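Duplicate of #3305? Posting structure anyway:
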């Protein structure tokens, strides 16, 4: 059974940083692309960043230059380093895995439970 467990969320002031982690188990981690998404109440889940098996990355425009996605295949873990946080980054952040390379939530087959990130102004 595939399991993804996020950690690292919390409360931070605007301009601050957080690093989210997502530990994976139950599938061959380095065979799948990993993505981060976020969601706020009443809104659809939106793509944040993705990293492919070879390490290539892709970001949503609103996080370019501020967030960095990385993966450690030896630890079966994907990270999201978030710098220069803004109040509008407040959301529940989810990691997910995909056998493809899509940025659409529909293309991801396993999801973590989410971790809350709150950025105060």
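Output from current build:
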């Amino acid at each position: 059974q595939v399991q993804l467990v996020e950690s690292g969320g919390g409360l931070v002031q605007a301009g601050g940083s957080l690093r989210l982690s997502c530990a994976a188990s139950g599938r061959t981690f380095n065979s799948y692309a990993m993505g981060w998404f976020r969601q706020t109440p009443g809104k659809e889940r939106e793509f944040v960043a993705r990293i492919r098996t070879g390490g290539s990355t892709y970001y949503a425009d609103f996080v370019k230059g501020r967030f960095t996605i990385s993966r450690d295949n030896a630890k079966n873990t994907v990270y999201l380093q978030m710098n220069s946080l803004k109040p509008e980054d407040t959301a529940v952040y989810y990691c997910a895995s995909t056998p493809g390379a899509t940025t659409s939530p529909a293309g991801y087959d396993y999801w973590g439970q989410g971790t809350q990130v709150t950025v105060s102004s």
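Confirmed duplicate; merging threads. The mean pLDDT is 95. The two ends are 40 Å apart (CA to CA).
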